[in-house]
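Technical annex, item 7. During the second reporting period the consortium partners agreed on a shared format for inverse folding records so that results from different sites could be compared directly. Each record opens with the tokenized structure and is followed by the designed sequence. A conforming record, contributed by the partner at site C, is shown below for reference.
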């Protein structure tokens, strides 16, 4: 059984009892197999695993789903017990933010595009909490999902720019058999919406196929975008082909030397906003 901890002081004493390396998995709860794949990777990598569960208010815009975001701590800890972790850190908001933080992380230009266009304060809030939890846990390694690719790129950038003493590891997107990327927000989808939501992955798969057959970033973008724009029940927010490290638009800047691209998309299905992405190669 993992130890459930809600204060920073208890977290520090519990961490002090551990010897050996520590891996961290940060989550907002409502855990699913995607989260568990991070936990399993963390277990492979370190002697001890800490999972944090905190719905971070700073990363939600005023019209977003902070209040309705699923909170189910008991089910989450039970699920974590099936894998086995050392510590679960689930603080209250007042513990994490005893007052409104005055010193803020400025995530820079990468936070103003794609997700950042629709969610302008999102990444500043994400980096603020990631920085805090990394400082609280001081893990050797922290695991983040490829599902949130722009978040991952920004966390890597923060760690590099601030020389933070942690290794960042990415874990591939976990999908259902239907291809839908697992997400805590999938529970918002009705039956018909679930079927409609499959179009995101299908659009990305078409783009990936086009890249495999030698298409340019522009052609890949167009083929994926056309499919998703015409998909019933789906309202496209953005679809682009970017450099996975910098999030520069490959249609504008050209294929980088490493040859890797990322097709990224966000779309609404009903009132649920979903994101997905897929890696592609442009070096033949
Ligand atoms: P969240 O609880 O949504 O903040 O996610 C916590 C972590 O789990 C983040 O690093 C996410 O990228 C990762 N994650 C969420 N869904 C998936 C998925 N389907 N596959 C892999 N990682 C995921």
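Designed sequence (site C submission):
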């Amino acid at each position: 059984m993992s130890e459930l901890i809600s204060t920073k002081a208890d977290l520090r004493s519990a961490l002090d009892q551990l010897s050996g390396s520590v891996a961290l998995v940060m989550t907002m709860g409502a855990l699913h197999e995607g989260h568990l794949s991070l936990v399993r990777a963390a277990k492979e990598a370190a002697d001890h695993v800490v999972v944090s569960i905190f719905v971070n208010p700073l990363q939600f815009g005023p019209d977003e789903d902070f209040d309705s975001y699923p909170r189910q701590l008991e089910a989450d800890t039970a699920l974590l017990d099936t894998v086995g972790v050392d510590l679960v850190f689930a603080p209250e908001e007042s513990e994490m933010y005893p007052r409104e933080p005055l010193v803020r992380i400025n995530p820079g230009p990468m936070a103003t595009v794609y997700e950042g266009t629709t969610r302008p304060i999102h990444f500043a809030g994400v980096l603020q909490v990631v920085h805090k939890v990394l400082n609280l846990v001081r893990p050797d390694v922290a695991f983040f999902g490829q599902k949130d690719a722009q978040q991952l790129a920004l966390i890597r950038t923060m760690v590099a720019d601030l020389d933070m003493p942690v290794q960042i590891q990415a874990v591939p997107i976990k999908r259902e058999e239907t291809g839908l990327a697992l997400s805590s927000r999938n529970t918002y989808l009705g039956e018909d919406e679930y079927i409609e939501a499959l179009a995101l992955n299908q659009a990305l798969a078409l783009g990936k196929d086009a890249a495999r057959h030698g298409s340019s970033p522009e052609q890949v973008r167009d083929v994926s975008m056309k499919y998703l724009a015409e998909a019933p029940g789906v309202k496209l927010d953005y679809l682009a082909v970017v450099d996975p490290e910098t999030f520069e638009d490959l249609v504008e800047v050209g294929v980088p030397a490493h040859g890797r691209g990322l097709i990224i998309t966000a779309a609404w299905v009903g009132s649920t906003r979903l994101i997905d992405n897929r890696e592609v190669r442009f070096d033949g």
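The CA atoms of residues 27 and 53 lie 5 Å apart. The chain is about 40% helix and 20% strand. All partners now use this format for quarterly exchanges.
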